[in-house]
Design a protein that fits this description.
Layout (H helix, E strand, L loop, with lengths): L56 E3 L4 E3 L20 E9 L7 H11 L5 E4 L30 H17 L2 E4 L16 H16 L1 H5 L11 H4 L2 E2 L7 H10 L4 E2 L3 E2 L6 E2 L2 E3 L2 E5 L6 E3 L2 H6 L8 H17 L6 E6 L3 H17 L5 E4 L1 H10 L2 H8 L23
Parallel strand pairs: 3-4, 3-13, 3-14, 4-5, 6-7, 7-10, 8-11
Antiparallel strand pairs: 1-2, 9-10, 11-12
């Protein structure tokens, strides 16, 4: 089926120099969501973490450790033929650093309160002290070069604490890579092998943060990052083709570095394409990308309407899916205070409204990929056949059934 094209307003077309709290722009600049089909699931209670994990196996210099299966994960099951799918919503954060404004901690608390697992795309360079910045060698750039700032030693420690707690909450730790280079000499120009170098460095900064910071007595991050890291979002949504080629060889499962419509995802180059989406921009006939930065640079946005425009746009997209094709809604954000924090409030209000609703699962990308992998291919084909906002003409009972005409 053909997909009607919709306008994107205000995509960030070039690299933007952002404050440390905001890891970059996109498109140009808790707990898991429960058992599929049921509200709530059996979970391990893991609120906040401890200094030591019984039975933990330290990895490398002790910056990370294998502590067993991640707590607070939803059970996954296959939909029965004709069963209405859950409405998945993914809230994700580019850069994911804590700089003392409390936003990382705050949204972890929001996630726990509203049963929302999230994905935090950690910038690896955020765990590298300024004194060691020359360790980072971005493809095509001088050692130590970066288009985003590095964190202070105190903020590195705070970031590690929040990353540790987020994983124990049940959320996912992905990557936003390192130096956030956009434009002609940025990530769009990188080859597959250069992406592999960038990924290896991002992982190394996470796996050796104790050595680099000297905080050897601190608790480790409670996961093996080689196993935890299965997906990413590229800076400015650039360079995704070669990134996917590298990611596929590394065994990753998804990529969210694109722009799409509100339809059910398919695999692209062997990875689930879990891109952000276009949703209505209130008061206009245009649509906007589901990211705070893009609402910010939309020419129809003003300081006075910033919060309501993003909140109402996200809610309009949510309702269109929830009452229509049930396609997952993917939202991207930064820990920032643009327009006096308007977008942070908009995201929080959206979480509060949608995550408690019946059949809604606010999940991480990894949890969404788990669910997609568990489904019957015939059911997924039927779901992908539904257009934006389109509910099955014959009702959900026929979807995925052999001979139904909606396979």
């Amino acid at each position: 089926m053909g997909r009607a094209r919709r306008a994107v307003v205000g995509a960030c077309a070039a690299a933007v120099l952002l404050p440390v709290a905001a890891a970059g722009c996109a498109a140009g600049p808790g707990d898991g969501g429960g058992k599929a089909g049921e509200k709530g699931s059996e979970r391990t209670d893991a609120r906040g973490g401890t200094r030591k994990s019984p039975g933990a196996r330290l990895i490398g210099d002790g910056s990370t450790a294998w502590t067993g299966a991640q707590p607070a994960q939803p059970r996954v099951r296959k939909l029965a033929p004709g069963e209405k799918p859950p409405q998945f919503v993914v809230f994700s954060w580019d850069g994911a650093g804590e700089i003392g404004d409390g936003l990382f901690r705050h949204f972890r608390e929001v996630g726990r309160k509203y049963d929302a697992a999230m994905t935090y795309f950690l910038s690896g360079i955020y765990l590298l002290p300024e004194s060691k910045r020359s360790q980072y060698e971005a493809p095509g750039h001088a050692p130590g070069a970066s288009d985003i700032g590095l964190l202070t030693d105190a903020h590195i420690e705070e970031t590690v604490d929040q990353v540790r707690g987020a994983w124990l909450d049940g959320s996912e730790i992905g990557t936003h890579f390192n130096g956030h280079f956009c434009g002609p000499t940025g990530v769009a120009s990188w080859s597959k092998e250069e992406w592999k170098s960038e990924i290896a460095q991002a992982k190394q900064f996470v796996q050796r943060w104790k050595t680099n910071t000297g905080l050897r007595d601190a608790a480790p991050l409670p996961f093996d990052y080689d196993k935890e890291l299965t997906g990413a979002r590229t800076p400015c949504l650039e360079g995704a083709d070669n990134l996917r080629a590298a990611a596929r060889e590394l065994g990753w499962r998804y990529d969210t570095s694109g722009v799409t419509e509100q339809v059910w995802p398919a695999k692209k180059d062997g990875l689930w394409d879990l891109s952000m989406q276009l949703v209505p921009y209130p008061g206009s006939d245009r649509e906007e990308l589901t990211m705070d930065y893009n609402f910010k640079v939309n020419p129809l946005t003003t300081p006075a309407n910033a919060q309501s425009q993003m909140r109402d746009g996200l809610l309009a997209g949510f309702r269109r899916a929830y009452t229509g094709n049930r396609a997952p809604l993917v939202v991207g954000n930064h820990f920032e205070t643009w327009h006096d924090g308007a977008y942070m409030r908009a995201v929080e209000e959206t979480i509060k409204e949608v995550c408690p609703l019946k059949d809604v699962r606010c999940v991480s990308f990894r949890q969404l990929a788990d669910w997609l992998d568990a489904q019957d291919p015939r059911t997924l084909r039927a779901l992908r056949g539904l257009e934006v906002g389109q509910a099955p003409a014959g009702g959900w009972g026929a979807v995925g059934r052999r001979g139904s005409g909606v396979e």
